[in-house]
Specification:
Layout lengths: L7 E4 L8 H11 L3 E6 L6 H10 L6 E4 L5 H15 L4 E4 L18 H22 L7 E7 L11 H21 L4 E8 L5 H4 L4 H11 L8 H12 L10 E4 L9
Parallel strand pairs: 1-2, 1-4, 2-3, 4-5, 5-6, 6-7
Helix pairs in contact: 1-8, 3-4, 4-5
The structure holds nicotinamide-adenine-dinucleotide (NAD) and ligand 0WE.
The site of ligand 0WE has 16 residues, from α6.
Length: 258
């Protein structure tokens, strides 16, 4: 049975009720995990209030600001985890960012700054969070990140995010190799396109969704709930032999050649 009771889980990347991380947090909570939620702070605290109200029904025992570009905030986050729980079992990395201008037009026009920003937030952050989580995962653990097919194949306009996801997926393998001896597993979930804050800001996302609805073996897109269920599996003892893998939760879209 999928049982996460007594497990302490830190979930990043909830922006609103469409976030994939929200679907994940709900499933981890339903399986009995004790949640810590981090959010991206903004100056006015508007984001904080929105996310706080949303997650209240899951009664998280930690609610912390964590901009992954800020090393002090990352350190403070894991200091708070240590203080509250003494250990950590589950880390969910569910965030990405690139400049909007870099998600359209010529890939070769990507600036050095834009490239660095996308790779810093979307790929390097898995390392920095895993490094901080490692000493707290004293009884082993599970780290899960979210990736996309655009990291292994060319998807129009995904551009620099594709390079960031390729780096992220290789981070999964190197981290799995390093952390395996501490019984910490590291895996990625490659989700099919879902309408969220991040994807809706992208031109043509509806056309992509319609394309998946025609082409994918299941003839539909996946939901945040389905990604959440697969994440709960990868966080649970049911997947104890699985590490360094990318699990496709995409209605089977990725197997098609035509
Ligand atoms: P979303 O906008 O709900 O989530 C993105 C999150 O990233 C937000 O919560 C945002 O606050 C956070 N974030 C951005 N910059 C940050 C920073 N500097 N520090 C901390 N947090 C930061 O969108 P989503 O679609 O749920 O995206 C979540 C993950 O799923 C991303 O890794 C994305 O690449 C991946 N993914 C999305 C899809 C899709 O179609 N929506 C498909 C496959 C994979
Ligand atoms: O990883 C993603 C979304 C990534 C993303 C989206 C935005 C839009 C708003 C990263 N940064 C930003 N920055 C913004 O300012 N997905 C997998 C969803 C997605 O994004 C695409 C897609 C799909 C699918 C971009 C182009 C083409 C397809």
């Amino acid at each position: 049975m999928l049982d996460l009771t007594g497990k302490h889980a830190l979930v990043t990347g909830i922006a609103n009720n469409r976030s994939i991380a929200w679907g994940i947090a709900q499933q981890l909570h339903a399986a009995g995990a004790d949640l810590g939620i981090t959010y991206l702070p903004d100056e006015k605290g508007k984001h904080e209030r929105k996310v706080k109200d949303l997650v209240e029904p899951l009664s998280p025992s930690l609610f912390l600001p964590c901009n992954v570009q800020n090393d002090e905030q990352v350190t403070a986050t894991f200091d708070a985890v240590k203080e509250k729980w003494g250990k950590l079992d589950i880390l969910v990395h569910c965030l990405a960012f690139a400049n909007r201008d870099d998600l359209t037009g010529d890939f070769s026009a990507t600036s050095r700054e834009g490239f660095q920003l996308a790779l810093d937030i979307s790929a390097y952050s898995l390392l920095s969070l895993s490094k901080a989580a490692k000493p707290l995962m004293t009884e082993g653990g599970s780290i899960v990140t979210l990736t996309y097919l655009g990291g292994v194949r060319v998807i129009p306009n995904y551009n620099v995010m594709g390079i960031a996801k390729a780096a992220l997926e290789m981070n999964v393998r190197y981290l799995a190799s390093e952390l395996g001896s501490s019984n910490i597993r590291v895996n990625g979930i490659s989700a099919g396109p879902i309408r969220t804050l991040a994807s809706s800001a992208v031109g043509g996302i509806l056309d992509m969704i319609h394309h998946v609805e025609e082409m994918a073996p299941l003839r539909r897109t996946v939901t945040q709930e389905e990604v959440g269920k697969a994440t709960a599996f990868l966080c649970s003892d049911l997947s104890s032999g699985i590490t360094g893998q990318i699990l496709y939760v995409d209605s089977g879209y990725n197997i098609m050649g035509m």
